[in-house]
Amino acid sequence: MKHVVVQSISSIILYVLMAFLFSSFLSDVSKTVIESDRFLVEFNLLPLLLLIVFGIVWTVYSFNTRPNKQLSFAQWSVRMTEFSEVDEREQIITAKATKAAYVSFGISVPIFMGSFMFYPLFEDTLPAYPIYALASTLIIATLVYMTTWIRGYQH
Amino acid sequence: MPLVNRVKELRARHQLTQGDLAEQVGVTRQTIISLEKGSYTPSLMLAMHIARVFKEPVESIFTIEEETK
Q1: Does residue B69 belong to any structural domain of this protein?
Q2: What are the HTH cro/C1-type domain coordinates in residue numbering (chain B) (predicted)?
Q3: In the list A118, A138, B46, B64, which could disulfide-bond B42, CB 3.0-4.6 Å?
């Protein structure tokens, strides 16, 4: 269970950092200065550095604590790290949690789609809203997956 | 119709810990705990593995509660 909790929280941190990076990039690009013969762009490197550092630490930790030690790095890297399917019971719990996360997409995505109708009203104050909305759908699905998995495991 | 089982009783008789049994049948200890509590219904394959460890027929270890009444 600890594995699923740690990996789910790590994924959420990763989504937040990615949203921070892309929103920062969007903000920087909008400040781009186009002069007659030059194109000047300034980037805030902090979100990128945070993402790289977290990504390295997370990759090393996750690979070393993977439930199935027989998986090579190539095999492991294309899988979702939140999945823990060591035996048949965990496979059932993972299937239920994945189903719950899928259902959460069916609810959260239409809500966020609806909220985009009002985006022009607050575009100036929150220009990166679409990025955070997308990140939120992933975060909600991950939280639903994690809580369903914990409930199934403790049952 | 819940499935009841004699895994806890047989495990004690064979002097096996939950970890020992889990290792022999290839599942986690948590699965054995859930199975003994009756909150998890095992697959036919797992039930047959358990029956093989205890050298008893599957139907003598796992029974549907209605049949036992």
Answers
A1: no
A2: 7-61
A3: B46
